[in-house]
């Protein structure tokens, strides 16, 4: 079989190269050097193609030969390029992780203390946690997201499972959807790139709704509503609760009501992604508006939650999946099936991060400290928005930069083209996504002027 393929490829290669050779020789018109170069070209080409032919089939002896090189993850790729750059002027606006004004990673003070307390706690052991995670953690997450006085909490209608960060919650949630529900998944255009990958891997059909308007650099509510009003009943709509990634553009409270209306009319199931509670407005309660409003309106829904950003627990992988059902009986059935999804993916969650979050959420004093600290952290990002806009205005950089202070959360969708972003990286050591997404957490009072100068240059060069 492989032998036949090689012979066939050799025949194709020879025919192709002989034609090229004849054509080129005609034009090279007896120039000897040209002919020699042509012979080398043909042979190199032939050698490469033969190698490809040899590798084009997997065999029991070479089982991975059919794999092709996959592209690197865009965000982790930028992180690595930034680390490898020796320049002391480099600015990291790629990854959505908080940095101090000294460009250092930040550990919440309350997190450090609670972690130490847990390490010193001799009553704890390393036995497996329940499949759905720590009960106190799950209750604390429900209070945080839905509000501590929400009647839903006592109703027994919410199923909650501790998951491996927001990504883990999304994956468990969409695996559950794929197995137990039917329907297309509507995804904002653009969205966090891992949403598309996760949906792809779970085998769900994705349809874009036109979320972002490049003209206004804001939310295109009319187009979103038009698109969703044509969705098939039973479809699932993936919605960012706040601080939309990558655009930093969120619906207003009035627009959320319109989205709720169309979801109700078309019987669409909301699947919320909540990765930035506290980072949009600086207020935990305000940032939960969409989920709480949909709950109040009687929606059943799914929510994937992440503590990576708002507790700075990035590498501890702490998140939760909530499924709001219509009754306690149905909740029990949902939980039983959810547990099978989790058991087959990673069995049960790790303990340390969940314990930290749980102690903070369940202890009034720690909770208060965390909320205050979160507010300080968010305040720095909001100040950097104003600083950057002021610098750009001061330098008279062409265009309108109002969207920098209008957009919220970690990211600004700058409107810079991929070529301008490339130029920022190559010539000015500024690392950001080619979509023009900038992580505002990487801006500091020390690098903001240099950044504005660099933006001015690339904008002038367009
Ligand atoms: C929109 C969105 N959802 C989910 C996540 C996942 O977060 P985690 O790091 O907890 O997996 C992120 C992280 O960047 C995000 O931006």
Structural account:
- Its cofactor is pyridoxal 5'-phosphate.
- This is aspartate transaminase.
- Its EC number is 2.6.1.1.
- It is an enzyme of class 2 (transferase).
- It is built from 18 helices and 13 strands.
- The chain is an alpha/beta fold.
- It folds into three domains: 54 residues; 115 residues, Alpha-Beta Complex (Aspartate Aminotransferase, domain 1); 235 residues, Type I PLP-dependent aspartate aminotransferase-like (Major domain) (Aspartate Aminotransferase, domain 2, 3-Layer(aba) Sandwich), CATH 3.40.640.
- It has a seven-stranded mixed sheet with strand order 2-10-9-8-7-3-4, sandwiched between helices.
- Strand 3, helix 8 and strand 4 form a beta-alpha-beta unit.
- Helix 4 packs across helix 14, helix 9 runs parallel beside helix 10 and helix 14 packs across helix 15.
- The structure holds pyridoxal-5'-phosphate.
- The site of pyridoxal-5'-phosphate has 12 residues, from helix 7.
């Amino acid at each position: 079989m492989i032998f036949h393929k090689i012979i066939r490829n050799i025949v194709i290669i020879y025919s192709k190269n002989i034609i090229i050779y004849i054509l080129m020789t005609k034009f090279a018109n007896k120039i000897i050097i040209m002919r020699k170069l042509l012979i080398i070209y043909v042979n190199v080409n032939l050698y490469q193609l033969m190698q490809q032919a040899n590798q084009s089939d997997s065999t029991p002896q070479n089982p991975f030969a059919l794999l092709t090189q996959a592209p690197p993850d865009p965000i982790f790729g930028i992180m690595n390029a930034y680390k490898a750059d020796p320049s002391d002027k480099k600015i990291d606006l790629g990854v959505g992780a908080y940095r101090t004004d000294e460009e250092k990673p930040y550990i919440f003070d309350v997190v450090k203390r609670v972690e130490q307390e847990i390490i010193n706690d001799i009553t704890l052991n390393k036995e497996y946690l329940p499949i759905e995670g720590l009960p106190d953690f799950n209750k604390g997450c429900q209070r945080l997201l839905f509000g501590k006085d929400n009647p839903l909490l006592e109703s027994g209608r919410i199923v909650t499972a501790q998951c491996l960060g927001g990504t883990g919650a999304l994956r468990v949630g969409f695996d559950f959807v794929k197995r137990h529900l039917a329907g297309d998944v509507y995804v904002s255009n653009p969205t966090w790139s891992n949403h598309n990958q996760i949906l792809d891997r779970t085998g769900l059909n994705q349809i874009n709704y036109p979320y972002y308007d490049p003209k206004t650099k804001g939310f295109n509510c009319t187009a979103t509503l038009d698109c969703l009003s044509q969705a098939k009943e039973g479809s699932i709509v993936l919605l960012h609760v706040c601080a939309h990634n990558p655009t930093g553009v969120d619906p207003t409270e009035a627009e959320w009501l319109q989205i709720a209306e169309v979801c109700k009319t078309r019987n669409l199931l909301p699947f919320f992604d909540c990765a930035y509670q506290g980072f949009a407005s600086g207020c935990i309660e305000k940032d939960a508006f969409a989920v709480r409003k949909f709950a109040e309106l009687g929606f059943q829904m799914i929510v994937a939650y992440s503590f990576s950003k708002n507790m700075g627990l990035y590498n501890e992988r702490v998140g939760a999946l909530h499924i709001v059902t219509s009754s306690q009986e149905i909740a029990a059935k949902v939980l039983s099936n959810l547990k099978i999804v989790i058991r087959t993916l990673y069995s049960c969650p790790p303990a340390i991060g969940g314990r930290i979050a749980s102690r903070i959420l369940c202890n009034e004093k720690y909770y208060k400290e965390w909320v205050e600290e979160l507010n300080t952290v968010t305040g720095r990002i909001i100040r950097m928005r104003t600083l950057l806009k002021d610098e750009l205005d001061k330098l008279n950089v062409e265009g309108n930069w109002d969207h920098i202070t209008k957009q919220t959360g970690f990211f600004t969708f700058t409107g810079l083209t991929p070529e301008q972003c490339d130029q920022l990286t190559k010539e000015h050591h500024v690392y950001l996504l080619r979509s023009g997404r900038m992580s505002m957490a990487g801006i500091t009072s020390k690098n903001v002027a240099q950044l504005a100068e660099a933006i001015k240059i690339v904008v002038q060069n367009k």
